[in-house]
């Protein structure tokens, strides 16, 4: 089964939250496992920076999706 990891920075604007909620809602209509992860107090730049840290929650989730 396909795993879809959706990540959102908790400090994003309301429009980003709305867009992500709509994206998640549409994907839930399909046969996928969806993991919706929010990185609190970050915007999208901060989320990308966390991808460089092997101990971050987002990298742990990415690795679990791949393994």
Describe this structure in words.
The protein is 46% helix and 24% strand. A two-stranded parallel sheet has the order 1-2. The longest helix has 14 residues, at 14-27. It has helices spanning 14-27, 44-50, 57-66; strands at 2-9, 32-39. The protein has one domain. The protein is of the alpha+beta class and 67 residues long.
**First-to-last CA distance:** 13 Å
How many strand segments?
Answer: 2
For the report, how would you describe the main beta sheet? 2 strands, parallel
Structural class: alpha+beta
Please mark out the parts with pLDDT under 50 across 5 or more consecutive residues, or reply none: none
Number of helices: 3
Mean pLDDT: 92
The shape is flat
Strand order within the widest sheet? 1-2
Quick structural gist:
With 67 residues, this protein is an alpha+beta fold. Helix content is 46%, strand content 24%.
